[in-house]
Amino acid sequence: MIRMSTLSLASLLLIAGATSVLAAGSEADFKAAYAAAEAANKEAAGLRNQWTTTAAALAAAKKAADSGDFDQAVAFSKEAEALAQASVFQSKTEKEAWKALEIR
Amino acid sequence: MRSAIHLASAAFALAALSFGAAQLAAAADTPDPVADAMAFQKYFTTKFPKLKLEDFVNGPYSMNEDMHRQWEEKEQFPPYDFALDAGKEMFSKPFKNGKSYADCFPNKGIGIRQNYPYFDEKEGKVVTLELALNRCREANGEAPFSYVKDEMAALTAYMAFTSRGKPFDIKIPNDPRALEAYENGKRYFYTRRGQLNFSCASCHVQSGGERIRAEVLAPALGILNAMPIYRSEWGGMGTISRRFMTCNSQTRGVPLNPQDDEYRDLEYYLSYVSNGLPISGPGARP
Question: What are the structural domains of chain B?
């Protein structure tokens, strides 16, 4: 169960890496990608499980957008979204999976 | 007829078995803090058979002879001494209204560390010593201290010192909310979080006594008995709040706010399962 969830988590992160490379776009693309990342991160906040790396990717996206580099800004936003989704996935999996570790 | 009887007895046996299994499953899921604490302590005493139960409060310094020698030498000139002196002075200095910390606590705040955290049935929540100290300040017109910085560490260091040697005596009153807080703390302890996918237990249960880079991980048993601690890594004192928050950020998780319900419940659970082990704080750690 744990191995499975770790593998799924790893796949999500790999997808994040791949989408970051492929991402490119305009200011409008950035705004859409950033909003999607923020929404996913908000869901993680509701589950009390945000990741520092999501926050870092969001900050990097904003910085790139401020300097006019929207390709980079979109890439960082997509990375942030994938990280946030992975944290949400982790919380949902752990809802039951934690019991396997309990000392009984 | 005979086959009908056989069929009926088989059905009865199956029903009885299923009933028994359902009862067992229910029993496994029913919270039982006493059984939890026994299993928790047994796990660590079995894993470290040479260690006396009371030695677990020294964390990594009890893990091998070299570390133990380091601890003995450190204790001759303990790095938490300055905090202890500051805490004693702060504790005895009256507030602007003439009252003091002693007026907020049973036994004037001396020798009571082992009873914290406790479940406050009026509030319906866990109250930690750090929280009680800040509530005391606010009730007397003083600004609260930061939960992670020196003043709070100094005050709790002094209060822990007056309880040294007294066994943790955390109670779970007959109140479903108390049991729920305990269970929430347990769930938090075992739940993986952060990008590194670690739970508190990943380091302090499965890997207690093992090295993580240059450090030896403390077993979870007795881990709060030594708080607050001077950490060489921090270059200063740290409270329980600081320890929990640092653990979260080390696994690349965003820490919660100090004294959020999750942290209060976690402290309740971890203290309860260390019941019977002596308070040794303030402590020092690498």
Answer: 34-285 (1.10.760.10)
